[in-house]
Every structure is written in C-alpha cells, then in structure tokens.
C-alpha cells in the first residue's frame, strides 16, 4: 500500500472521488487542526518541531491559501514537512499564476524538499508539470460544490507522476538552480567572512 502523503493512487484514499469538496476540505481542516480562519487571520503561526514561527498573513497569501488547501485535498499530499515539500514542488511545476506568496512559499518548501525528500519532491514536481493548479483560474464558490473527482479532473491531476520528458527534467533542473542559488550565495558569503 502506498503512503498517503505521496498523493498517489492507493486502496484507501483520504478523499474519495465521490466526496464533495466542501466535506473533504472540512475533513482536511479537522485532521490538521486548521480552519478557514487562516484565510483571514493577520498572522500565520505554526511550529517546526519545538520552534514557533510566525509571519504576516499577506493579502497575496490570503488569496492563495484557500486554493492551496484544495490542492492538498485533490493531491492528498499531507501537511508534514515532506508533504508540504511535495505540494510546493507540485504547485511550482504547475505554476502559481499571479499569487506571489504562493511562488515564494512554494519555492521555500521545494528547496527544503530537495534536502529532506529529493525523490518524492522530484515525483511531485513531475506530476505538477502535467497538472493545472487552481492558481490559473482563481477562486470561485462553485469549487466547494464539486466532487473531489471533478476537482481532480478540473486541475488535470494525473493519479501518479507520468514518465518525465526532457522538458520536465530541464524545468526541474532550472528550478533546482533557482532555489539553490540563494543558499549557495549565503554559504559563499559565510565562507568569505570566516577567512
């Protein structure tokens, strides 16, 4: 049986194709101790292990997070560090449109995924290259009245990562270079300062 966080077909999906998106999103909220209050809250607060982190919930993030949550439902990537890396890679590969907060936050989780779960991050990226995230169409109230299966169809979600094309591999290499550059720059600066 495949792990749920891989967002792949498995015998017991978290969110059945026949479930309504509104019900599946509520199930997702309950399972992760979330609510739609995060769409309005001024601050985003969470922990990475024992370390509390907070950042301003920008207008761009407030627009992106309802779509991001529906992506979690459709793909079944979980909200662990690895699951967030997977969904970050999936969203980056499919494109985040005009949602600048999504581009930034996904690039961050994508970079983390390259370190903590490179194979799973790569598979999610390839799967995203063959999908069309909701960032391209934006929010509409009818999204929550769809079935999960209809949502998956709307975003052209493949059940598994297809075999990568040379363009998929080139896009992945480009993104790896883009997210790795700031880290390499920081390491180079630190090395120079230690001399």
| Radius of gyration, whole Å | 17 Å
The total count of strands amounts to 2
- Please give the largest β-sheet: 2 strands, antiparallel
Order of helices and strands: HEEHHHHHH
Helical proportion, percent range: 55-70%
Q: Mean pLDDT, rounded to whole units?
A: 88
SS strand fraction? 5-15%
End-to-end CA span: 52 Å
Strand order of the largest sheet: 1-2
How many distinct helices? 7
> Class by helix and strand content?
mainly alpha
Low-confidence stretches: 1-11
Number of separate structural domains: 1
Characterize the structure shown.
This protein is mainly α. The chain has one domain. Helix content is 55%, strand content 6%. A two-stranded antiparallel ribbon has the order 1-2. A hairpin with a 2-residue loop joins strand 1 and strand 2. The N terminus is likely disordered.
Which key features would you list for this structure?
disordered N terminus; single chain; globular; 195 residues; 6% strand; mainly alpha; 55% helix
Write a brief structural summary.
By secondary structure, the chain is mainly alpha-helical. The chain is built from seven helices and two strands.
Task: Produce the secondary structure layout.
Layout: H1 21-32, E1 43-48, E2 51-56, H2 59-75, H3 81-94, H4 100-116, H5 118-129, H6 148-154, H7 166-194
Antiparallel strand pairs: 1-2
């Amino acid at each position: 049986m495949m792990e749920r966080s891989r967002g792949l077909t498995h015998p017991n999906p978290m969110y059945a194709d026949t479930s309504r998106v509104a019900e599946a999103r509520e199930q997702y909220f309950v399972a992760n101790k979330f609510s739609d209050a995060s769409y309005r809250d001024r601050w985003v607060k969470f922990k990475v292990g024992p370390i509390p982190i907070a950042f301003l919930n920008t207008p761009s993030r407030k627009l992106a997070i309802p779509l991001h949550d529906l992506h979690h439902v459709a793909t079944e990537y979980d909200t662990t560090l690895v699951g967030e890396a997977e969904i970050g890679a999936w969203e980056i590969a499919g494109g985040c449109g005009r949602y600048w907060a999504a581009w930034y936050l996904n690039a961050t989780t994508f970079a983390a995924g390259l370190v903590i779960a490179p194979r799973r991050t790569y598979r999610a990226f390839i799967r995203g290259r063959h999908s069309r995230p909701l960032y391209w169409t934006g929010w509409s109230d009818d999204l929550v009245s769809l079935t999960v299966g209809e949502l998956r169809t709307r975003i052209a979600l493949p059940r598994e990562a297809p075999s990568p094309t040379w363009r998929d591999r080139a896009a992945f290499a480009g993104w790896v270079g883009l997210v790795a550059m700031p880290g390499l720059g920081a390491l180079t600066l630190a090395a120079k300062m230690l001399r």
